[in-house]
Every structure is written in C-alpha cells, then in structure tokens.
Amino acid sequence: LNEIFLKDYQAPRYLIESTDMHFELHEQDTLVRTRMQVTANVDGGAGAAFELFGHEDVELCRIAINDQVLSEKDYQRQGEKLIVKSVPASFLCETLTRIQPQDNTALEGLYKSDGMFCTQCEAEGFRRITFYPDRPDVMSVFRTTVEADKALYPVLLSNGNPVEQGESDDGRHWITWEDPFPKPAYLFALVAGDLEYIEDSYPTMSDRDVKLLIYGEAKDLDKLEYAMASLKNAMRWDEEVYGREYDLDIYMIVAVDFFNMGAMENKGLNIFNTSCVLAHPKTTTDAGFQRVEGVVAHEYFHNWSGNRVTCRDWFQLSLKEGFTVFRDAEFSADMNSRTVKRVEDVALLRTAQFAEDAGPMAHPIRPASFIEISNFYTLTIYEKGAEVVRMIHTLLGEEQFRAGSDLYFERHDGQAVTTDDFVAAMEDASGRDLSQFRLWYSQAGTPELKFSDEYDPQAHRYVLHVQQSCPASPGQATKEPMHIPLAMGLLDQQGNDLTLVNGETTLVLDVTEAEQSFTFENIQSRPVPSLLRGFSAPVKSHYPYQRDELVFLMANDSDGFSRWDAAQKLAVDIMQSLIHDHQNGVALTLDPRLVDAFRAILEDSTLDKAMVAKVLTLPSEAYLSELATEIDVDAIHHVRNFVRKELAQGLESILLSVYEACELAGEYSPDAASIARRSLRNLCLSYLMATEEARYLALAEEQYVNADNMTDQSAALSMVAHSRFKQAAHKLLERFYKQWQDEALVVNQWFAIQATNPEPGTLADVEALMQHPAFDMKNPNKLRALLGGFCGQNAINFHMADGSGYRFLGDRILELNKQNPQVASRMLTPLTRWKKYGEARQQQMKAQLQRILDSDGLSKDVYEVVSKSLA
Ligand code: B3K
Ligand code: ZN
C-alpha cells in the first residue's frame, strides 16, 4: 500500500472551470452525469495526461472528451486513478457513472441515512460518486441538478442557491442548484429526503438578508432552535471579531443520524451528525448543548477558514482545522466562561493529544506523509493545530493577529494554500520573525520544559532557568529547539502578583534555546513562580514545586487557569505517590492538605461555581495514564477511587450543603451560570455517592426522579449505574430506557453509561447490549457509545488481565474493517498504546494487532494504523 509524501506535491496539470452535475436518485441504481469544462493549468499542462480519481465501487458507464466517447485504449486505470492519455488544452469532459448509495456502509460519498440520501465528501469521498480530479487545489463552480421521487424525497438540496425546478408525470421532480463560489470537490454536498425545517434570517454587516434553514426529521423539529440561535451568534461574532461576512443568500444545515464525524462544512449546505445539532433540555445534557454551540460555530467559521481559503493538499489540513478550532474555542469562550473553556480544552489536549503525540501514530501538525488521509483527522491536527495558532496570537497580540488574519484572507481569497502561507501572512502583517516558530509545523512530539530557579536575597535578584527538549517520534530521532511563548508571573509571599516590566504582572518570555535563563531584578523576597499561565504553549512543564506551594498557587494565582492547574498538579503528585505505595504494599493514607485545600475551595462562595467543580474534579485515570511511564491500570483505578472516597468522607457535610445550595429553581436554561450550578451540584453528589452510603443512593434516586432536564437525570443515572447498588442500578437503567426508547441520542447515552461501568462484569453486559434491538452496528454513534465507551473510557474493564477486552475489540475491528474503515481505524486507538503497559498486557495487545494485520482484505485505514503500531 503506498504512502504519499508532501515532498512529492505537484501542481495540477488541468483546472476545472465549471462542473455541471445531474443526479438521478433511485432505490437501486443512482446515475450521475458530470460535465466538466477543463483547461490546462498555465504552468505547463499542455500535452500532459488528464488525471481523474474514481473509487472501485463506481461503475464508469461512459466517458467522453469533446463529445468523443473514449474506449478503453484511450485511458489507463491505476488503482483509483483514471488517466486520459491525450487531451487538448481546453475541453469538455463528460462522464456517466452508476453507484449504489443504499449499500454504502462506509458513509463516504453518497449514502443513505435513515431513508434519506446524503453525502460526505471530505477528504476523498467525491471519488465514490464520480470520476473527478478529486484534490483540494482543483476548484470549480458547480451547477447541480437533483432528480428523485417526489413523495419519498420532497426535499432536494445541494450547494448554493436553487435556480430552477420542475416535475414529471411519473411522480418525479428535480431542482437545480448553483454555487457561484469555486470550490474543491470535497465541499460538494447533496441531500434528498422527507425533511422538515425551521427557518430564520440574518441581516449581515452590510445589510444583506441571509435565509437560514435547519432541516431534520419531523420528530426532531423541536430540537433545532438552539442550533439556530448558535448559528446567528456565530455569524455576528465572525463579523465583529474577524470582519468576516457570510457570502451566499442561503445557509442550510441538515441533521443526519448516520455520520462518521461531528459535522461537515460543505459550502452553504452543512451536514451534521444529529448529536451535534439536536438540543432540547429534556434530551440533551449541558455538555451536549455546548457541543452543539461549538460545532455549529466551527462549521460556520469554515466558510472563510476552509472554504473561501482552502488547503492546497491534505498535508495542509491543519491550515483550516487548527485555525477553525482556535476560532470556535474563542467564540465559546466569549459566549460562556473563558477560563472554563480553556480548562476543558487543555484537559483534552493533555490527556488525549499528548498520548497521541507520544504513540506510534504521532505526526507533526503538518504531516510529511500518510497512507490514508482519513487517519489524520486527529487531535494533533485539530487541537494541537489550534494551540499553534493560539501561540501565534499570543506572540503577536490581538491587534497584529487580526491584521495577519485580514491579510491572509485578502491575499488568498479563492485560493488553495499552505500552512506556510498562513504563517507568512502573520509575519508580513506584524513584522515578527516566525522562522523558528515554523518548527511547530514540522516536528512531532510534546516538548518538555524543565525549570529551576535561584534567588539572591542580597542582590534582590531572581533567576529562572529553563531547559527544553522534545522526545523522539516516528521518523524524527532528534529535534531542534522550538520557539515557545512562556506566559509567567511571580507571586510574593502574600500571594500578590509582582509587577515585572511596564506595569505588567504577566510576561510572555520567548523560550527559543535548549537552555536559557531569565533574570528578574528588584525582587524583594523569594517569589513563587506561576508558569505557563493560560497554558501558553502545548508543552509539559516541570518545576519542582513543594505541595505547600501548589496549595498556595491554588489559592492565590491571579490566573484562573493556573489555579486549576496547581490543583491538578497537587492531586497528581499525591496520587502518584499513593500509586507507588499501593504497588509496594504500603497502606494508603491521604495527605490531609488535599482535603483542606478542597474544603477551602468549597467554602469560598465568591468563586465561579464552574471553576470550583473543575478544581475539585480529580485528574482522570486517562491523564494519570498519560503521565505514567508504565501504566498500572489497577493501581491507578484503585488509588483514584481511594482518594475520592477519602475526600468524600472528609468533606461530607460541606459537600451536602453545597449540593443543596446549588439547586436551581425555574425553567432549564443552558447559560453559563446555570450550567455551573448543575456541574457543581452533580460533582458534590458524585463524591457523596463515593462514600457508598445508602442515604446518598436515595439522594441520587430522588434527583433522578425530580430532574426536569437530561443533565441532572443522566448524571444521577450514571452515578447509580456505576455504583455497587446493583439492584438500584438495574431498576433505574430499565426505567430510563422505557422513558427514552424513542429518542435515539438518549438511547446512545444509555449505551454509553453501561459501557463505561467500572464494576466487574461489564464486558458481558456490552456483549449482550450489542444484541439489543436498539443497537445497530452500522450506526457510528451507537458504535462510539458502546464499543468506544467500553474500549476507550473503561480502562479497568478493557484491560482485564485475561485479555478478553482486547479479543473483543479485535473481533469487532475485523467485522468493521470492510463495513466502515474510518470508524474501524478510530476504534483501534486503545490497542495502539500497547508499549505503555506491563509485559503481560503488551503481549496480549500485540497479539490482537498482529491478528488483524495478518487478516485478508484490510482497508488502507486499518492497515496504516495497525502496521505503524507494530513497527
Ligand atoms: N471537515 C470535517 C471533517 C471531515 C472528516 C472526513 N473524514 C469536519 C470539520 O472539521 O469541521
Ligand atoms: Zn473543521
């Protein structure tokens, strides 16, 4: 299987001026007619062969150049490539293809979701529809006619504006859509179905009225309002913060049940996984509401960062994804609580992205090669990519960053460009040299900063020393020092920020060398450093803090993120020594400083409740695993539970009073303050449940019964379901299913809660649930809930010593490999981390990977991940 390299990039030999498509949708065969107006690319295309891509499942019925039908000797097939040997400098290429969307379980290209036709073309799905120069640097305007049975598919959509429609006597109808903006094929979309919609309008900054439509199944019509409100907020925000205005007269979103990812930014016609667009207090949790807001905004922001300016090739994926994630994170921060959003993003990055960056699939945010691009829609490209853009923002400051972004959009509007073009625009607008900074795009791995310091009381001088390093990653044995913006401050003994220069209390130091020292004069007493404020760079930082200093920072740091981080560091330090004790048979005792520090936080009623909840949430098992040299699954699980129980017992009465004080009256609202109260209240309840006292089971059951919203209901359910109160768990789970069996997304939560149960016996439950009538192996949301929940979020059960969890996953991957390669390859992730476990588990995990590798008919997706994991 061949690997594709960035260094081999060549400009396209031919460009497409316009594309005219006709879809004849049927229950069996769908016919696609494509007419492309093609011209040689100025830089030397004439005489060269014309290259198209088409998947093996696409039947080519006819291909003609300037009305001349080609015979097989006129072209050559090489895998997915179709090469027409000789063409004039300008010509019309017509194709007719036949496909079977109803049998398409890969959910790429044109497929059916619950009876409706829909598409997913990024990255290379368009070639599953027709033969086309399917590469992002070939951009064309599209005119698309969709024709189908009117009764079955009353709604027919594609990109752009509807321009013509008609119907025939045989019950069929058609609509033609025109998209005036040139776009790559990956942004093409089509939908046909029996859909309803809600409608609104948005007046843009230059006073054009844009029609907003959100489509879904009739039963979901009452769950679309929040997405609509979020869309309008996002449109306003992009005008105010980036000066970006929407460009078509109509913006559509369609909700579909079968979707491999969260959503897709197709020009003017976003297609969304129902899980990222439907929201209703009764069926959606607070986290769900925030996800809808964030994803709606993300896809909207792509209209500029992705569609108007797109990627030259797929190695540049982070150009649009990193930038757009940065944009949506800032949007969510502005709509809700900035610190809470930052804490959530950093927790995800440090847990999952750092693990990816330390594993066998580690890659720079601009990879140098790949076998299957679908495997590179990763936390690294998205989240680390966003951190890299955030660092540019930190280095340039708000104003210059905006100037850089303006220049980028102005310079490259309508073009397909590279990450380097983005950095160059930032440099040109700001005058800042980002040449060393560019290493962030080419070097993989998480850099580490090691700090030490010294204070001279006579000279009143404080010196901070820093060493940077970056571990080896696949194909990169050694790394150059990077340009790392280090936001920091110094606290005096009373906990006040010292003024450092120009009245500033937070400085951004440029860490650029392997070893560097920074000197601070006029420091009256030994300060406590606050390092990496706001998580100013995606690095691991090590400073030899004493536990008392961490308690001090938790209480005093002026940076909210750093207060949370100090609490995490304190809890990590304590849990790591307890893990060590546990491994050595030493009886566990909890450092009382953690209980005291947590009590102080709980007692301080001036603090933001959301932040209290974050600070009091212990570092996850996954984060402790990421930090461990060798993951001891059982010790980590045991110790974290021990600490939770100790905290619960030590803080029982205050937990109960905060629980009661956080009760909300009135109607549910997903605003930041209400979310904060619910999150703190549910955190208190989960600690109280950790005492394993029957009275708190009763309290959880009471909350379950009284809840008027899914956040409180599902929180109570999962606490009871994951407890040792088996009967109560069983009863509540049944009750929940009865109540919600007609709500697919809620049933998915029901699957996920059971799959993540840490109690013994869960694998058998999961196997049984796979036979449940509500489960469907073809639906990615259900797979993610059940299989993903068990293998990815239930370490103690997935890693059972007998290897049964691994075998179970191995079996499922082999089943999924053909059916849906993208989902199969994603589900593999937990097995790829085998190097971090003890010898016995390593052998069993590797055995499953080897078994997969040895089997026939592996998809590129699965092959790439398995082979790289075993290399
Ligand atoms: N751009 C899409 C991702 C498509 C993934 C295809 N395998 C969603 C997004 O990032 O907005
Ligand atoms: Zn995106």
TrEMBL record:
Signal peptide extent: none
Residue ranges annotated for the Aminopeptidase N-like N-terminal domain, each copy included: 104-187
Record-listed E.C. numbers: 3.4.11.2
Enzyme class: hydrolase
Recorded catalytic activity of this chain's protein: Release of an N-terminal amino acid, Xaa-|-Yaa- from a peptide, amide or arylamide. Xaa is preferably Ala, but may be most amino acids including Pro (slow action). When a terminal hydrophobic residue is followed by a prolyl residue, the two may be released as an intact Xaa-Pro dipeptide
Domain Peptidase M1 alanyl aminopeptidase Ig-like fold: 445-543
Name of this chain's protein: Aminopeptidase N
SUPFAM superfamilies: Leukotriene A4 hydrolase N-terminal domain (SSF63737), Metalloproteases ('zincins'), catalytic domain (SSF55486)
Family of this protein: Belongs to the peptidase M1 family.
